[in-house]
Amino acid sequence: MLSTFVNHELKAFWRSKNTGKSVAIRVVMAVLILYFLVNALFLGVFLDKILEAVFPLDDVLVSFCGILLLYFFFDLLMRMQLQELPTLRVQPYLHLPIKRNTLVKYLAATSLLSAFNIWPFVFFLPFIFKVVIADSGVAALAFIISIAGLTVFNNYLALFIKRKSNLNGWVFLASGAVLVLINLGDFMWHLYSIRDISYAFFGRMVTQPLLALVPVGMCVGVYYLNFVYLKRNLYLEDLGSGKVSAYKNSTEYPVLNRFGKVGDLVAIEIKLILRNKRSRSALVMCLFFMFYGLIFYLNPTAYGEWSKVFVGMFMTGIFIINYGQFMFSWQASHFDGILVSKIKFTDFIKAKYLLFTIVSTLAFLLTTPYVYFGWRVLLIHFIMYVWNLGVNTTIILFFANRNQRRMDLSKGASFNWEGVGATQFLVSLPLLLTPFVIYMPFKFLGYADAGLVILLVVGVLGILLRPWFTKKLEEDFNTKKFGLAEGFRNK
């Protein structure tokens, strides 16, 4: 059956109407992967020299044992963001006399054909053959087995998390937050040392090679977890079989109930964000950019106060910029349904405003720890938060009526330029430049506080005038909705 599945997938690929585009993308990806593999091999060959330079007080083998666990922590984080789920159109096979186990085993096997599974060997094997094998061939074999076990463990754990995230987006966010907190506990809060924990295990492997069976056991366990999950959910009706049948409010977010239909629309869009790869990637990137201020605030002498304005606008408005630049492309696949539904476009616009307000408010709350660098930093962040809600939200929604490029939500964000065009470049200019057009003249004249007050006043006026802007945006949408629908139909 393996050869049959491969044959069918090859035929599906070459007979697709987008074959030329797909081949070009795969060629570019292959070149990039080869480039990264060559770099990994170069680093692996000189890893002993690099470790001696970075950790001059430690033995090179001690340093090597200390970085292994760190590598696999970051590897898992990268896999969760970039590794694609293996796919197979299983529906045509479900009514045939083919065992579920065969289909699941094929999906499990194809997931191993990932560049992420090659890099650890390219990176670590040169060091093992240069340093470890000279002292003990058995220890070298144990290291190779343990690296293989952890690589496969990360492979299946990342896939399991992503599969669970397709049903519940909070699983992805919670898993990413746990990994980030684990690393922060070491590098920022110094509660423990991942290097010491790594050495405690891999250091003993030199004298106790049987410890290599621990990663192998972990690998087998997570493979079995994936196998059982896929087998149980192979049929579409199985995905919802365990859900409670009792009626729930359509929002399922009690805080949104008070907003009525607008709250329902926001809840639906939150589900869209959490359940699809590219929109979820946009949200995850926003969380990572919450650390953006450290680049500027840790070196205050190199940047002036203008940086506080930029950082405050960027961190509290990154979701508006990153997610909002693709309005209404996120709804491209069901845009025709929106046009013929009973949804009032006024409520649709209000839902976008409410969504931006909720996420930007959360982003502002996440930036409050920057008060450590002074109360003025927090004050400027608040001013730019108000600016984002009053001005940038309206600018984004204005340009949304002019973005006719559709997007496939199932595709990841890495190396994916679908839906990106000149509109996104035009959107970025007023978003990034408008506050400085207002603020910088006052700054040069020595009245920086006056510039900040003007930004705050304009932001507040923008919030107060939202009903008027909503009406104008609706009128603008009615003149362009058919052009948008036609653009979104083009695949």
From TrEMBL:
Protein name: Uncharacterized protein
Signal peptide: none
Keyword Ion transport in annotation: no
Keyword set, alphabetical order: Membrane, Transmembrane, Transmembrane helix
Residue spans crossing the bilayer: 23-47, 53-74, 106-132, 138-158, 170-192, 212-230, 281-298, 310-332, 353-372, 378-400, 420-438, 444-465
Pfam families for the chain: DUF5687 (PF18940)
